[in-house]
Design a protein that fits this description.
The chain has 470 residues and is mainly α. Helix content is 76%, strand content 0%. The longest helix is centred in the middle third of the chain and has 32 residues.
Length: 470
Amino acid sequence: MNPRIAVVIVYTAAMCMNGLDSTIVNPALLTIARDFGEPVSAANTVEVAFLVALAVALPVAGWLGDRFGTKRVFLGALAVFTAASAACGLSQGLTALVLARVVQGIAGGLLTPVGMTLLFRAFPPHERMKLSKVLIVPTALMPALGPPLGGFLTEHFSWHWLFFVNVPIGAAAVLLGVVGLREEKEDVEGGFDLKGFLLATPALGLLTYALGFGPAHGWTSPSVAVAGPLGLILLVAGCVHLLRAKNPLLELRLLADKVFASATVLALVTSAGLMGVLFAFPLLYQAALGASALDAGLSVFPEALGLMLASQVADRLMPKLGPRLLAVPALLLATGVFAALAVPGVAEHAWGVRALMFCVGLVLGTAVLTVQIAGFADVPPPAMGQAMGLFTIVRTLGGALGIAATAAVIAASGGSHGQDSDPGPYRAAILVTAGLVALGVFAALRMPKEAPGPPPFDDEPRDEEIQAAA
């Protein structure tokens, strides 16, 4: 098999598993708690453990890929993720399930940045826009499909099947990757940055823990009150060290490139806005209409369909308009759509909600895909692993920050996470997410006017390879 087709297929399969696992467990937490005779608050540890472990693994992903080879690290992480999925499904107690989810999260934290590095190294900048059709499937469709699929499997089969579905897909992807992928290593100067690891890794873990538990347990609860400030202190200390170190674990100096820095900032604010609205709007939908949790979850599903269409829009318009002229209007439209979701009376109309959520995916997805592709155009292949790791960390923290910010606004405005019939607090939270998306306009204004083009004397882009794989 052509190695470029192989990397597209293996990457898509792995990221679909990872994206699905980030949301598929949520509808089953109550059932899991009952099966194990545990309170629901204890079952929430299943999800928080996964997210914290994922965040902890992100700082070392770029270094591991460069040091040991992207193919070896990616397939090793995929094999561990698949085995951990089987262990989750076979768990007979909450402790065993949480430990398996920790292993799954660590492997998942390596999959995303190393997988994107494989993909972007296989295709030069002028061909990457075609990859939007591939990138959008695991990042948009799978997380949105997770809640309804999780509810269906739990209700009609067993929650164990939430994890067993990964096993055949993961095994097939590993086998194809062993045969079809090329190995790529980069020369890593110096040894492992142990000090950077000891600062950055616990910093991300503590911040993710605080952002995950803060809205539910209260920001003044002892564990959150300690984890949040300590994580911030370690993060600041880690950034200072990484900027001074000769061979840092994370190359923060890549942010000196204004285009890559703008793309990274945009990833932070748009991820915060999108994850925030996907958290707050279902609560508003339930408060305004008395809808069920499943109906509320399905109400945001058209957002994924809009993102799927965005991959087609961005692919066709970016070569003609360029990154800046495409991203800025899209972000302005996205801000307006987000704000419209908070207008009184909107949530009471089911089809109006679905149309707006579709528009959220379409316009915001167009902007995000455009900036992500353009932001890495000038990153040289040897630095791709470091750049992708840094970008993924910022995007992950942005999503957690968006959920925490909207939850804090809801609590401060008198809401109680879906139990209060007053929709006001939820509308206030959605307006905050609109403001976050609006901040992305300033980052998009720093993007280049022209789309990445082929280097001189390069052959025609082989788009048929991407199309065949997709």
